[in-house]
Design brief:
304 residues, 2 domains, 3-stranded mixed β-sheet, 13 helices, elongated
């Protein structure tokens, strides 16, 4: 079905919705679109028997969020495409689970007259838990990617080129907690013994947050739990550049582990184009994800 015709149809439905006689629910509009043979075939090919359940969760998600409803009325295919993306990753879109999100953005575009207009569109956002889940599916890890804070006196040396790091961890937790945090380290190990460590100083983390924030002030997730956000930032960088991820579940066979080893030695940024949100709670009024936004997404300004 032509995207322009779909938008025109849903816009007409929106106008009709303003009158009592032509009022339709979002569920009815979405069901009408998703019931098309082409859509059914696409979701069935991705999800099989779970397709009806996923479509139901997509409809429920949109019904519960006024901003997503607006996105569906103004750009319906962006909602469907975001849903298909989540389905292709085989990740749930329930916001409280933190695996994947479908988030509305108030985007700008030029109309036929060259004038700037606003349109609400939906975007697929890969959650922090979803990122780790894609790692687990490879079956190639003996130690899944994780991160820890580094206290003053614990970093002995760190080679920026090779990533080799030496730490002298303080075992007394009470004494350790008294020391200031100077940075964060991320680590994973593959089943064949290959491993990777990265380190980011607190200054680097703060610079990263400042660079990617939207507006002048630190985001709510960072202000509420800087430590957790910093660890997630390190893990994301570790996985994006050196980790192996898979949409499909694997057995961790020799070929998979070998592919992971090649990535580890060469570095990689294949997944850098996938926006990642480290968050667990979504504000139902604004759609803002709390618990942390680690990308330059226009949450507050765009969704007011």
């Amino acid at each position: 079905m032509n995207t322009g015709l779909i938008q025109q149809k849903t816009q007409q439905n929106l106008e009709a919705k303003k009158t009592e006689a032509g009022k339709q629910t979002v569920s009815a509009l979405m069901n009408s679109l998703l019931d098309s043979e082409k859509m059914k075939t696409r979701f069935d090919s991705l999800l099989g028997k779970r397709a009806p359940q996923f479509i139901s969760s997509l409809i429920t998600l949109v019904n519960a969020d006024e901003n997503l409803q607006r996105a569906f009325y103004e750009a319906p295919m962006t909602v469907i495409q975001a849903g298909l993306k989540a389905a292709s990753f085989d990740l749930p879109i329930e916001p409280s689970l933190g695996f994947a999100y479908i988030v509305p953005f108030n985007n700008s575009y030029k109309d036929a007259r060259g004038e700037w207009q606003k349109k609400t569109e939906a975007t697929f956002i890969l959650g922090y838990k979803g990122l780790v889940q894609l790692c687990l599916r490879t079956g190639a890890y003996s130690r899944i990617p994780d991160a820890v804070e580094v206290r003053e006196g614990e970093l002995v040396s760190y080679d920026r080129l090779t990533g080799d790091a030496v730490f002298n961890w303080i075992e007394d937790e009470d004494e350790r907690d008294k020391l200031p945090i100077i940075g964060y380290a991320g680590y994973f190990r593959l089943k064949n013994g290959a491993e990777k460590t990265i380190y980011m100083s607190r200054k680097q983390i703060e610079a990263h947050e400042a660079k990617n924030r939207k507006g002048k002030n630190m985001g709510k997730g960072w202000k509420d739990d800087f430590d957790s956000m910093a660890k997630k930032t390190v893990i994301r960088r570790l996985i994006n550049h050196y980790g192996l991820m898979s949409i499909d579940y694997q057995s961790g066979d020799e070929a998979t582990v070998k592919a992971a080893e090649n990535v580890l030695t060469a570095g990689r940024e294949d997944f850098d184009e996938i926006p990642v949100v480290e968050g667990t709670v979504v504000d139902e009024r604004t759609g803002e994800i709390f618990g942390g936004v680690d990308e330059a997404f226009p949450w507050e300004e765009e969704q007011k």
